[in-house]
């Protein structure tokens, strides 16, 4: 199986930017989307009838606030169960987590809260990190977990182009967020791409401003983290930065 994740920065927008042909070229079995910015019916309407999605099922989790956040799963394989949220009302109003249970693993796609300008949402983000980690650990007791998505953190200095000027100033590269990611990994999970590429510099998000993508002034914010006990069944982690259509690019792994 090929598993893919992509923050599309608006599903209705990306459909107008060659999503159909991109989906065909990805040839993925399961795709997790983040930041759909649409209600559930709007997600289905945007994707309805695309030739590349013939044979797939679409599941969606939208925020109460319209045009904000949201996640979706597009899958060739029928899940045992699909469930939104982590079971805590405070965190489940923004459509940030969608889980599909398959025979051998839980597939979780997540759009982690951004700490926002001025880091005004950092306290919420810190609480989220703890709650989400507990959620993954609980799932992991049932069967292995494959968690993908925009985790909104550059974990190490090589995960962003300008670490010194952004440290403790910019959302996604504060010590609290770095520590949150470290704790995720310490609780029984592995960052698949970094595990396979310990020293390689590659990014998955670029600002739309200042020609950042052309200059490759970016951040690695998009991940596949997996339960340690399933790591040896995964291979070929990819950051697909030749795929356009969003300010993020897709990331993928193979399993089995």
Model description:
The protein has 256 residues and is of the alpha+beta class. The protein has a single domain (2-255), classed as Deoxyribonuclease I, Chain A, CATH 3.60.10.10. It has helices spanning 11-15, 19-26, 40-47, 122-142, 163-166, 175-186, 192-196, 212-215, and strands at 2-7, 30-34, 57-61, 71-75, 81-84, 97-101, 106-111, 145-150, 189-191, 205-206, 218-219, 222-227, 234-239, 251-255. Helix 4 packs parallel to helix 6. The longest helix has 21 residues, at 122-142. The termini are close together. The relative contact order is 0.16.
Comma- or semicolon-separated keywords:
single chain; 256 residues; alpha+beta; Deoxyribonuclease I, Chain A; six-stranded mixed β-sheet; 8 helices; 14 strands
Beta content comes to: 25-35%
Assign the CATH superfamily.
Endonuclease/exonuclease/phosphatase
Write down the secondary-structure element order: EHHEHEEEEEHEHHEHEHEEEE
The total beta strand count reads 14
Alpha-carbon distance between the two ends: 6 Å
* Individual helix count: 8
Mind telling me which CATH architecture this is?
4-Layer Sandwich
What does the largest sheet look like?
6 strands, mixed
* Tertiary shape: globular
Work out the helicity level. 25-40%
Spans of 5+ residues with little confidence (pLDDT < 50)?
none
What is the subunit organization of this protein? single chain
* Derived structural class: alpha+beta
Mean pLDDT: 98
Total domain modules = 1
Largest beta sheet: strand ordering = 3-4-2-1-14-13
Please give the radius of gyration in angstroms.
Answer: 17 Å
């Amino acid at each position: 199986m090929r598993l893919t994740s992509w923050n599309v920065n608006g599903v209705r927008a990306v459909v107008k930017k060659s999503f159909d042909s991109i989906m065909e070229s990805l040839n993925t079995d399961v795709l997790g989307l983040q930041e759909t910015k649409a209600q559930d019916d709007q997600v289905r309407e945007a994707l309805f009838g695309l030739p590349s999605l013939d044979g797939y099922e679409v599941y969606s989790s939208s925020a109460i606030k319209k045009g904000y956040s949201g996640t979706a799963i597009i899958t060739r394989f029928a899940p045992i169960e699909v469930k939104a949220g982590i079971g805590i009302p405070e965190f489940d109003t923004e459509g940030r987590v969608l889980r599909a249970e398959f025979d051998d693993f839980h597939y979780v796609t997540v759009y982690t809260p951004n700490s926002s300008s001025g880091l005004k949402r950092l306290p919420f983000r810190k609480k989220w990190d703890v709650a989400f980690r507990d959620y993954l650990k609980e799932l992991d007791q049932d069967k292995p977990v494959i968690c993908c998505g925009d985790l909104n953190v550059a974990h190490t200095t090589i995960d962003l182009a300008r670490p010194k000027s952004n440290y403790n100033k910019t959302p996604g590269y504060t010590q609290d967020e770095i520590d949150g990611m470290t704790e995720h990994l310490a609780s029984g999970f592995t960052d698949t791409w970094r595990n396979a590429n310990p020293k390689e510099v590659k990014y998955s998000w670029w600002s739309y401003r200042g020609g950042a993508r052309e200059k490759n002034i970016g951040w690695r914010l998009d991940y596949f983290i997996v339960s340690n006990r399933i790591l040896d069944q995964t291979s070929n982690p990819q950051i697909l930065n030749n795929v356009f259509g969003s300010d993020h690019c897709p990331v993928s792994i193979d399993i089995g």
